[in-house]
Amino acid sequence: MERLEPSQPFCPVRPSQLPLDxxxxxxxxxxxxxxxxxxxxxxxxxxxxxxxxLPTPLLRSPLPGGKGSVARVGVGTWQTFDVxxxxxxxAPLAEVxxxxxxxxxxxxxxxxxxxxxxxxxxxxxVETGLRSRLFLATKVWxxxxxxxELQMQESLRLLRTDHVELMQIHNLVDWRVHLKTLRTWKESxxxxxxxxxxxxxxxxxxxxxILKSEALDFVQLPFSLEEPEAGNRILPLCxxxxxxxxxxxxxxxxxxxxxxRGKPLPTELALDVGISxxxxxxxxxxxxxxxxxxxxxxxxxxxHLLDNLGGAxxxxxxxxxxxxxxxxxxxx
Length: 332
Hints:
This protein is an alpha/beta fold. It has 12 helices and 12 strands.
């Protein structure tokens, strides 16, 4: 779970004003919900400066192989979507998917190791009618070819779909065996793209060797101001080889917010780069590296999602601004 506390107030419309089920909310209908979502996305405020009445479009990244594009900020589901069958806990997650789609974002990352997250995401994708607008990424996380195949089939069943946009080998578990299966799935259309993931910088050497020797589409690793190591080793390799990169733990697992709690945003960056919260500060630093395809902060809160998406709007920091942001972060 990335966001451990609310970001600074930023929007004129409260999430509670949005219906959890717009099709059953009386005066609310889907058109009003969409309008409210866009107002939320546009209504950022910093130091009394109001944003434009309509949001700028989300920045997008091309996918490997010319297979379309994705918004540069999405959603991770670790912990946040692991809510089981409880309707009250699922309701805000349905809202997250609606806001994601209403604002033009699309990437949602999950895994069999995330408890009930795949099942919750699959059910909500069908219930909201948004499956076709989502870029679903999941993983295989077991050993052995047979068990790997069965687990991936189960993921499709839980996600209530016949394919995923990205299938990844979670933490390189039995990667040589699963890579053969992933290539078969890609050929059959059950996975549009394939990749590998890890959560520790200690594995970066192994990741480098794999990326240099194997035909892959994506790699997913931690990358943030708290954990910047991938920027020195992996991201240049991704740029050279045309690989997509998903940045997980963009808020350092949530610890980043404790570091800046109560501290004001740097005014010059807020104005020059269009930053209205510390979440956007963190995300814009990540996305300022051109080799990052998408950052996937975990959230189950639609208001936090809208704030996060502000990191993929407008201007991104250049190299000098990113260095300044690192200096600010080190001093925080």
